[in-house]
Amino acid sequence: MAGVSMIHVPYRGQGPALSDLLGGQVQVLFAATPGTVDYVRTGKLRGLPSPPRRGGSSSGAAAGRDFVPGYDASQWYGLGAPKNTPADIIDRLNREINAALADPAMKARFADSAASRSPARPRICRFHRCGN
Q: What's the whole-number mean pLDDT along residues 51-59?
């Protein structure tokens, strides 16, 4: 979309990739904002355009759509449990996670790390990777 040519370098996680970015071995990293926001704030990294949501983000990066029309990127995190976990355990996990997400201190931590949150919803995995 931006006419930029890049070579994908696979890493075993954001930690090693971030180390190489900070060390100058790679020039760009598509990374989770919470793991990089402090480096942007302290000037050790430059935050390039991020997802198109400006509201609530304190990452220091401009919205991607301001530079590349139609650009959108997002990520999400989830919590997994082994298959055959009893429904009452899943229900309790869901209640506790939602309680944590609603806690003002937790909301502040998410805001401080330039992340947004949404309520947890129990999902049943039907993909072969989870063993179902």
A: 47
The CA-atom distances, in angstroms, between 72 and each of 51, 69, 95, 113, 122 are 5, 9, 31, 20, 26
Q: Give the global pTM.
A: 0.56
d(CA 16, CA 6): 19
| Residue labelled with tokens 């900070």 | 22
For residues 124-130, average pLDDT: 46
Cα distances from 79 to residues 17, 61, 75, 125, in angstroms, run: 23, 28, 14, 11
Q: Which residue has the tokens 């198109």?
A: 52
- The confidence score (pLDDT) of residue 74 equals 67
Rg (alpha carbons) of the chain, rounded to whole number: 18
